[in-house]
Amino acid sequence: MDATAGRTNEADWADLADRLAGALHLATAPVAITFSDARPGGVAQFDAPMSQPAPDGRRGRVPAGCVFWVHGASSTFSTVAEDHGNCSVGSVTHGFAGIGDVAGNDDVGALLDSGWVTDGAFGMIPVVRERPGAVTYGPLRDTPADIVPDVVLLRVNGRQMMVLSDAIPGMRIEGKPQCHVVALAKEQKVAAASVGCALSRARTGMTPDEMTCALPAGELPSIVEDVVRASEVDSAVARYAASDARRFA
């Protein structure tokens, strides 16, 4: 988990981000997510106030780790375990806590009692295997030269997901919890999209038509090439279909 072990440089990340955003017509900038042993030097700490503790002791700087995706589209910052502490599920998927550590928390109880998830399913959630010292978020195009992201997170609509599914054969389409796609992209080096989850949508304010897709950053150069190609093909087909449909006007 060395955030300074370089694969590419700052200009490459900016170019990849711009090409990806342009091909998909993204409304939200791609977010780089980097796991490291310690806070990277020169990166600001996320400094929102810590919440008052919940009755079970949970507290954090945001309602859930997925909220950092929203902030990370516009600024670069680092976080540590306690910043994520209000959401037990996100703490588990990001490697900050084990299931046994959070099993007695009120939010886990609410999810189990409602039937939203079962004990068995909760135990099978993909997770980051090694506990990180810090997780850094920020716009992919602004990634510092000495930071090497693990995951690139996209917020997409149905049309953009269509292009991604054409460009990335075998991309996994997942459900709840939404944040586990980050663990899949980091640990298994696979592209994983999520249709979202009620927990994350309520906490992030994501619109009903938005979904997320987590891409392994190390594969991004080839993924971008394939996305650009798929977008161009889809645009050509759409122009043909629109022209053909004029016969029915």
Structural summary, described in words:
The protein has one domain. With 249 residues, the chain is of the alpha+beta class. Strands 2-3-1-4-7-6-5 form a seven-stranded mixed beta sheet. α1 (10-24) packs parallel to α10 (220-245) and α7 packs across α10. Helices cover 39% and strands 13% of the residues.
What labels would you give this structure?
seven-stranded mixed β-sheet, disordered N terminus, 249 residues, alpha+beta, globular
Briefly, what is this?
This protein is α+β, with helices and mostly antiparallel strands and 249 residues long. It is built from ten helices and seven strands. The chain has a seven-stranded mixed beta sheet.
Helices and strands, with pairings:
Blueprint (H helix, E strand, L loop, with lengths): L9 H15 L6 E6 L30 H6 L4 E3 L8 H6 L5 H4 L3 H9 L4 H4 L11 E6 L11 E6 L1 H10 L4 E3 L5 H9 L3 E3 L3 H7 L6 E6 L3 H26 L4
Parallel strand pairs: 5-6
Antiparallel strand pairs: 1-3, 1-4, 2-3, 4-7, 6-7
Helix pairs in contact: 1-10, 7-10
